[in-house]
Specification:
Blueprint lengths: L2 H25 L19 H13 L6 H14 L3 E5 L2 H11 L15 E5 L8 H6 L2 E5 L13 H4 L4 E7 L8 H11 L2 E5 L7 E2 L2 E2 L6 E5 L12 E5 L2 H11 L47 H32 L5 E2 L7 E2 L4 E6 L7 H10 L28 E2 L4 H9 E5 L6 H11 L7
Parallel strand pairs: 2-3, 2-4, 3-13, 4-5, 5-8
Antiparallel strand pairs: 1-9, 6-7, 6-11, 8-9, 10-12, 12-14
Helix pairs in contact: 1-2, 2-9, 3-9, 4-8, 9-12
Length: 443
């Protein structure tokens, strides 16, 4: 071992010691009902994430590098897809996935401005934002109340000669009927983007969600199934879509060389592109109007350690969900989550919808939980078209509503969710069950 290798090994050994003295005690504080703060999600990590992070920082490569390449391959292998591309957030993943469909390389299947994309309004806004920002038209259908996912019976009503794609999320880890949606898309030659940001590790008939559509997208923000702090990914089995997304992620360039690498094609100064001079440097030829959406190798280093833990995280989320479900299924005025046949969700959260005649309102129940230090969340935007961002848009021109959004509005008014993340203790889950059984008349 060289002197430098010895020094690095000593530094990393100190990192392990630092984790055990500083972070491990903070993660293992005992739960005290009503006093301990129970967030809906949180980071779950150990010394391996810190060691990887410091290891990457000592190399000081910083941008896309060895850890990024390793993460992309391991994520693709986990999901059973050919390629994944690391990006800087789940919202960037959605942006990249949608913008790939606008590439001229797709010819007649290209999504152009004014074309329509079927979506739901009961979602996180960045599932829909790229559609609107580009100038395509989102066409909204309602959701099923029991799953908070797309009502597939309304897809036909949303169809028009302008429809080019369907872009949907698996709500809180609960898979939408991806078999029916995929069949609908295949019959009409529509693109399917799966926003898999809340569902990493979910399966339908044994296959991972995100791997059914043409493109899947993930988020690695701290509340999600695994974290890099900030980060995301897109994945696909289609070589042309992979090529387009690589270009769009990396400034729109035509070249596919890795950062710091030149002349992978061995024709860097010999080709003709557009009306550029023949032999113009291929590293500076742009085939798309792109972005810089890359993550750093520091983030990827954390992600590599997290990905090793992902199967255990998924199983713990399922176990925590079961505790809440079994503890709350006797409450007649609460509608609890249901799944489609063949679904095996990797739950992101536990959704509850108040039934007609419930003794409390959603905000009363949420306030009761929050006063007892249990963090709650509404189901994201509830109904996105009711938000100020839609005030300047014109219905029928900038967006369409294919069917009344009755259940979407019901969820907006009467639903909330709590967390099931792997860091939750059984005492914490039991306390949540106890609190949710609260009745204002007897309180």
């Amino acid at each position: 071992m060289t002197a430098q290798e010895q020094m690095k090994a000593e530094i990393l050994a100190k990192v392990v010691e630092y984790y055990r003295q500083v972070h491990a005690p903070a993660q293992n504080k005992p739960f005290i009902a009503g006093q301990s703060r129970v967030n809906y999600a949180g980071r779950v990590f150990d010394e391996r994430e810190l060691v990887n992070l410091v290891d990457a920082s000592l190399d000081f490569w910083l941008t896309y590098g060895d850890y990024s390449r390793a993460f992309e391959k391991r994520l693709a292998d986990y999901l059973g897809v050919r390629w994944s591309l690391l990006v800087n957030s789940g919202s960037s993943a959605n942006l990249l996935a949608f913008m790939a469909l606008t590439s001229p390389l797709l010819k007649e299947r290209r999504v152009e401005r004014g074309d329509e994309v079927i979506a739901i309004a009961c979602c996180f806004p960045t599932t829909v934002a790229p559609i609107v920002q580009y100038g395509a038209v989102p066409v909204f259908v309602d959701v099923e109340l029991a799953t908070a996912n797309v009502d597939v019976s309304q897809l036909e009503a949303a169809l028009s000669p302008k429809t080019k794609a369907v872009m949907l999320a698996h709500t809180l880890g609960n898979p939408f009927d991806v078999r029916a949606v995929k069949a609908f898309c295949a019959k009409r030659r529509l693109w399917l983007i799966e926003d898999n940001c809340d569902a990493l590790g979910s399966r339908v008939d044994g296959q991972f969600t995100g791997a059914f559509g043409d493109i899947g997208a993930s988020s690695f923000y701290p509340p999600h199934h695994m974290t890099m702090g900030e980060g995301g990914a897109v994945y696909t089995n289609d070589p042309l879509l992979r090529r387009i997304m690589l270009s769009l992620r990396d400034w729109g360039r035509d070249c596919w060389c890795d950062s710091g690498v030149d002349n992978t094609c061995a024709n860097r100064f010999t080709k003709q592109f557009g009306s550029l001079p023949r032999g113009y440097d291929h590293k500076y030829v742009y085939s798309h109007f792109g972005y810089n959406l890359k993550a750093t190798d520091l983030q990827a280093a954390i992600g590599c350690a997290q990905l090793e833990k992902l199967p255990a995280f998924v199983e713990q989320r399922k176990a925590n969900f079961r505790v809440l479900y079994e503890g709350l299924k006797d409450i007649g005025w609460l509608l609890l989550p249901q799944t489609i046949p063949g679904a095996d969700p990797s739950w992101f959260g536990f959704l509850m919808t108040l039934q007609e005649g419930a003794p409390v309102s959603r905000n009363q129940l949420s306030g009761h939980l929050e006063r007892n230090n249990i963090q709650t969340r509404n189901l994201f935007a509830g109904n996105l078209i009711r938000h100020p961002c839609f005030d300047s848009l014109k219905e029928g021109t900038d967006y369409r509503i294919a069917a009344p959004l009755t259940n979407t509005d019901k969820i907006m008014n009467d639903s909330l969710w709590v967390g099931v993340y792997p860091g939750m203790e059984q005492k914490c889950l039991a306390f949540m069950v106890e609190l949710i059984h609260w009745h204002p008349i007897t309180a």
